[in-house]
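testing teh design pipeline on a random one, pls ignore if ur not involved
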């Protein structure tokens, strides 16, 4: 549990620091590419929904209802770039490393635990032997029952 909390804390710190890099990439690379087709600042992209008055000097809506879809697009691009970099540079290599570590571990070749059917068969045989008066181990039935309970609690 502690290892997971530490990994989460490191991920938050790295993610917060990485946000500045992604913002710089969006402002320095993505916005100029978008600017080749229009305004370089994505925040300038907006659409008016109802009777909007535009200031003729600045070109900004001064009255009415408008949607700033350019800032939403900028935030979505920032998120996609951040998610892509985190996945391809952090998560994917870590998963490959864990798979290699798991492959190096030797397989557990111990005896297989008895199945539930085998344990129930042992209990039945022990109970039948006890009822018929044969010399059976009186603790066999309770031991087999305990084994079933243990096996079910693992599942």
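output:
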């Amino acid at each position: 549990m502690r290892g997971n909390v530490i990994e989460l804390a490191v991920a938050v710190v790295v993610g917060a620091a990485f946000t500045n890099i992604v913002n710089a990439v969006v402002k320095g690379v993505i916005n100029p590419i978008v600017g080749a087709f229009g305004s370089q600042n994505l925040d300038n992209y907006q659409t008016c929904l109802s009777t909007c008055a535009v200031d003729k000097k600045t070109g900004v809506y001064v009255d009415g209802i408008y949607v700033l879809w350019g800032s939403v697009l900028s935030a979505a691009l920032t998120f996609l770039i951040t998610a892509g970099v985190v996945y391809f540079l952090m998560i994917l290599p870590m998963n490959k490393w864990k798979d290699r570590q798991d492959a190096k571990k030797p397989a557990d070749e111990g005896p297989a635990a008895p199945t539930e059917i085998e344990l129930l068969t042992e209990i039945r045989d022990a109970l039948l032997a006890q009822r018929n008066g044969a010399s059976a181990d009186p603790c066999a039935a309770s031991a087999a029952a305990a084994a079933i309970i243990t096996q079910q609690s693992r599942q």
